Amino acid sequence: MKKLFVVISVLVVLSMLSACAPAPTPAPAPTSAPAAKAPEPTKAPAAAPTKAPEPTKAPEPTKAPAAEPTKAPAAAAAPTATAAPRPTPPPGRTVVEFWYGLGKPLGDVLEAVVMDFNKSQDKYYVDPIYKGAYPDTMNAAIAAFRAGKAPGVVQMFEVGTATMMAAKGAIKPVYQLAKETGWTLDPNIYIPAVRGYYSEGDNMISMPLNSSTPMLYYNKDAFKKAGLDPEKPPKTWNEVRAAAKKLVDSGATKCGLTFEWPTWTQLENFSALHNVPLATKANGIQGMDAELKFNADLQVRHLQTLMDMAKEGSFKYGGRDGAATVLFPSGECGMIMASSAARARIKNESKFDWGVTFQPYYDDVAGAPLNSIIGGASLWVMNSPNRTADEYKAISEFFKYISKPEVDARWHQETGYLPITHGGYEKTKADGFYAKNPGADLPYQQLTRSKPTENSLGLRLGNMPEIRTIVYEEWEKAFQGQQTAKQAMDSAVKRGNEVLRNFEKTYK
User: Fold this and answer.
1) Are 20 and 156 spatial neighbours (Cβ–Cβ below 8 Å)?
2) 332 HSE (CA, 13 A, CB side)
3) Tens-digit pLDDT profile for the chain (508 aa)?
């Protein structure tokens, strides 16, 4: 546990410097400044530190020209409001603290779901406490665990899964929670691509909550102007490139294609769709001794395609993380690969007719496309010296509640995140939501269109935020003409493997 603190402390710093996870950028509220990016999970706290090998930090990023997100108009000054008092748990209830990091308006939906759970029974009370952005929540959880006062439940972003799973003493796996509390947990009710990300074999380690996956959004009005069929969006990368070039050549848009969260959309999900490994050991799921392998011919080919498209003017690199998101609703780019949960922002900000479709693929790759993989966050049960059996029972009941089809469907419909259960999807379909919101069911279909393989189940690689930063740096050099696609991928793999080895040494 002492070693864990060192790793988590480093990860906290890295999370402040780089993308936490591919989470959607909430649409700006009508009368306020844009909501902060939906924070993703917190790290497992640790005991007092002793020196352990620290992961090799990536050099200062090489800056590439990136589009600065358009700022929303400043809201009119509003009277200073007094914060509403926090609800007081009813007497006699077993109270469990739940620390989360979703900002408004997503956080409001989450709190409403929690409060409805509290109203649904009279034994337990889950107290939802917003701890700020994920780095802030991480720091708070670390301090609380060291003091022996960790919250019952903490939210953690998906690429922090490897670190949390290594923190054996700090967390209680969901399958163990179920056994101890008499909960008959059926993993099969959860979407395989979601469940698998947070499981060891058939054993669920954390509880899925907000999950998303990349989709291709396109400007139907621009397609018409360019002479493209707005009802036949491109399916393959050859079709995407041709459409992007036509959008630009016709003057329909200044930019044909862009994408947010580059490593998530163009490397992690790209590899899953084409059934090629990101790393050995089933992308790290089978062990910490995994080695990165994303410099294979297909991944190099794809980066070269993007470089060629940038040179011909049909693709624009919009920057790291979610920086490019604004380029689509602003009308600058005719297509964007973005999170399924970016739907709300695109709907609210776009002044044109738009559509959504599946991620593109190379049709000369046998078996493609497979299922995509997720981004987002899950809920982790934390141990504490004075935690009672009743508190664990309360957490178990809460997890059972959010897994109900009607609750899952509500979460999906009100936030734009994916349903985490098959029942939530079926309930949403029966409600007529998909008929009223065309394309809203495509992320579910994309995640479930094939049985996940070792290459499309997800990934569990130590210090993944640092590895993502390394990829950003190498790709940006390639886009600037400073190195070839092969050199960029080879360098990213070499540097990334050094990060993995340091992570492995720390935990072993």
Assistant:
1) no
2) 16
3) 444 444 444 444 344 434 344 444 443 333 333 333 333 333 333 333 333 333 333 333 333 333 333 333 333 333 344 456 778 899 999 999 999 988 888 899 999 999 999 999 999 999 999 998 766 777 787 788 889 999 999 998 888 888 888 877 889 999 999 999 999 999 999 999 999 999 998 899 999 999 999 999 999 999 999 999 999 999 999 999 999 999 999 999 999 999 999 999 999 999 999 999 999 999 999 999 999 999 999 999 999 999 999 999 999 999 999 999 999 999 999 999 999 989 989 999 999 999 999 999 999 999 999 999 999 899 999 999 999 999 999 999 999 999 999 999 999 999 989 999 999 999 999 999 999 999 999 999 999 999 999 999 999 999 898 999 999 999 999 999 999 999 999 999 999 999 999 999 988 7
Alpha helices per DSSP H over 274-342: 280-283, 297-312
Query: What is d(CA 378, CA 101) in angstroms, rounded to the nearest whole number?
Result: 11
Q: If you write DSSP's letter for every residue of 57-72 in order, what string do you get?
A: PPPSPPP---PPPPPP
Say yes or no: 170 and 239 in one domain.
no
Q: Which residues contact 48 (CB under 8 A, 6 or more apart)?
A: 2, 5, 146
- Domain shared by 32 and 132, yes or no: yes
C-alpha dihedral (45, 48, 51, 57), degrees to nearest 10: 30
Q: Specify whether 281 is located in the same domain as 235.
A: yes
Q: Is residue 80 part of a domain?
A: no
Rounded CA separation 443/474 (Å): 30
Residue 492 lies in a domain: yes
In the chain, helix, strand, coil percent, each to 5?
A: 45, 15, 45
Q: Give Cα 149 to chain centroid, integer Å.
A: 28
Residues 283 and 316 in one domain: yes
Six-digit token string for 139: 């720091």
Same domain, 363 and 402: no
Number of CB atoms found within 10 A of residue 34's CB: 17
Q: What is the DSSP string of 365-401?
A: STT-------EEEEEEEE--TT--HHHHHHHHHHHHH
List the 333-339 sheet strands across, edge first. Answer: 255-259, 333-339, 214-219, 354-357
Q: What residue type is assigned to position 407 of the chain? A: V
Tokens 């497992």 locate to 44
Residue 430 burial by CB count (10 A; 0-12/13-18/19+): exposed, middle or buried?
exposed
Distance, in Å, from the CA atom of 414 to the CA atom of 408, rounded to the nearest integer, reads 10
- Strands 94-100 and 124-130 come out as parallel
Domain that holds residue 256: 214-372+455-507
Q: CA 77 to CA 68: how far, in whole Å?
A: 25
pTM: 0.81
Instruction: Using alpha carbons, select from 72, 77, 90 the residue that is nearest to residue 34.
Output: 72
